[in-house]
Design brief:
With 281 residues, this protein is mostly helical. It has two domains: 92 residues, no CATH class; 170 residues, no CATH class. It is 75% helix and 0% strand. The protein has eleven helices and no strands. Helix 4 packs antiparallel against helix 5. The longest helix has 58 residues.
Amino acid sequence: MIAKFRHFVSALRLHLKSLDPPVRTTCITLWLLCVALLVLGVLGDLVTVDNQGTVFWDGKSFLTNVVSSLATACFGIPLALIFLSELSDRSALGAARRDAMKSAHQVASRLRSLTRDLGFPGGSERDLFDDVLSRIDRNTPADSPDVTTFLGLARTWTQGLDAEKFVNTTVPLKQLLKYVDERIRPQFIELGLNWTLTPALEARFTRLLSKKIFNSSIRGTNEYKEGLQVSGWQFIRQNDVDGDFRDMLEFNATAESMANELEGLDSTPQTPTPTPTHPPL
């Protein structure tokens, strides 16, 4: 019993410290007034006003009710203020967590949209590239059927590439990653939510964005297209075209995994929850 009372007092002290100064001052003032009224009431019951033992409160039923009601109000109002403050804090925390989740899902949707805009091989086309790239390297003969297959796929894909759109998409991708790193992750941590995005996945995404496929002005230009059409395997070797396509396939897979993990983030708080900062009454 004593332990529970101490816990209550400790929790009450922490709650008072967490309140805004005007509210905290009001609570303390009302409690002091409550104590004063209690003392006044007890003294009124003890002090006699005549030789017959009549106490101060005898015959003053209305005044007695007013003072007792006032004392009760002075005790209950601060508790109500603390409860409402706690309720408000938890409501605000819940709203902030929902907003954080919404932002993470919006980033995932935006990531998928930008990845599609890049025009990297996807679906069955991606499978074809992945299959043929697994069977060729720099030492593969130019007349190899696999080289011929890769050249055909690369030429077809490159002819449909919009170089301007490609360049205009890479910048928002880098900005999106920066937004995740500087805004979304700190927001989750501050709100006590579990940040489960795999660090290795973020690192791989950053590494891929630094690849030359995202930073070379030749990618997607007429020179690049003509090189594939005219020089073929020699151009591929000189310009690491097969490496470009490997980077594209890895980027697609990484972006999809990152979007899935962002959408998989939930509002489950860490244990213990860092906010609100005071224990429940």
